[in-house]
Amino acid sequence: MPAYWLSVRVYLEDTDAQGVVYNASYFRFMERARTEWLGEHGVDHRGFDESLGLAVVLTSIEAKFRAPGRLGDMLAVSAELAELKGARAVFAQEIRQGREEGAVLATARAEVACIGRASGRARRWPREFVEGLRL
Question: Engineered SS bond to 25: which of 11, 14, 33, 91, CB 3.0-4.6 Å?
């Protein structure tokens, strides 16, 4: 399944005092890309909650920072589903300078889970969602 790419401009709020992207900002950028990927595949967080009583939560993330992004940069942020099993989905992610072909600034592996909103316990992804994917 191809990666979803999101363009992000680095604003002052995303940087430290030296104008370098603060590490937490990379996590926000990756969260946006995962959210957009899910939306492209029929998972609207609000609708998921209201109609199915489900939520999607980040359970772990491992990142490697390779080079700094800077104030004013355009970044390309990817989200690609690497694994889907039961309640768990794993995304491979990259942040690149400029465009998809740009230098890699950061890579990550993010695990998210589908949970019951009321119980907080793991729940399998809805069948309609899983059947719509081509893994």
Answer: 14
Which CATH number among 3.10.129.10, 3.40.50.2020, 3.90.1200.10, 3.40.50.261 corresponds to the domain 4-131? 3.10.129.10
For residue 20, pLDDT over 90 is answered with: yes
Q: Please tell me the distance from the alpha carbon of residue 41 to that of residue 89, in angstroms, as a whole number.
A: 13
Contacts of 119 (CB under 8 A, 6+ apart): none
Tokens linked to 31: 């969260």
> How many whole angstroms separate alpha carbon 69 and alpha carbon 46?
31
Q: What does the domain layout of the chain look like in residue ranges?
A: 4-131
Catalytic residues: 16
* Widest pairwise Cα distance in the chain: 47
Q: Are 97 and 72 in contact (CB under 8 A)?
A: no
Q: Within 10 A of 1 (CB to CB), how many other CB atoms are there?
A: 12
Q: Give, rounded to a whole angstrom, the gap between the first and last alpha carbons of the chain.
A: 6
The C-alpha angle with vertex 27 and arms to 21 and 28, in degrees rounded to 5, equals 85
